[in-house]
Amino acid sequence: MTQLAGPSRSPAREYGGAQQVNDPINVVLIGPPGSGKGTQAARICHRYQVSAISTGEVLRAAVKAGTPLGRQVQQVLASGVLVSDGLIIDLVRTRLAEPDAAGGFVLDGFPRTLAQAQALDCILEDRPLLVLLLVVPEAELERRLGARRICSTCKALYSTGTRYGSEAELCSRCGGMLIRRDDDNLGVIRTRLATYRETAQPIVRHYQSRSSLVAIDGMAGTGRVTRAMMAAIEDARVGSTARSKKSVTR
Ligand SMILES: [Zn+2]
Description:
250 residues
């Protein structure tokens, strides 16, 4: 039914056959800025027909819904203060209790702190969780982020392929000037990568100690990264089926 976008060879057939179960796909995706995490999250969701749940989306949805939690979020955002762990955890807990999440989810950008990771363990209780860690060397991330351009007119995204090339490139769609976003300047990029390093480390250690973490080489092409992730998901499913059988016979 679902077909994967991108250059990969019919992964639906490759992995579809092993899908004897309707086990939910519960995935946490961790990866630095520039790792292609968003693209991969979208592909996994498309393939397994599950929702991507990101902190930003959950915050926006709560504000829009006007729930008591949402009004709280709106006040915090308006005051310019960072949204607290407790509030984000409450929102994610509420989101994961919605019917569609019972069939699986891909969490992108959550957990961001150790406290959030521990809270997620409590929220999920016995539900299985697979953590996929996209690994890309920082030099490559700097190169990728530094090569990003956006059309100043139509906002189309480009990768120039050169690190700090000429800015005088034009959009192939509308002829607008391609510019680098403020977020993509080297100083900002390094700060973002350092922040990621600091915040990701304790979370990665937390999941390593529970062996639910699979590291994926993010240097491979986008299609190969997708296939590696899906292979890890299928492995985890087979493993969880085997484990639950074992616990029944024990
Ligand atoms: Zn344009």
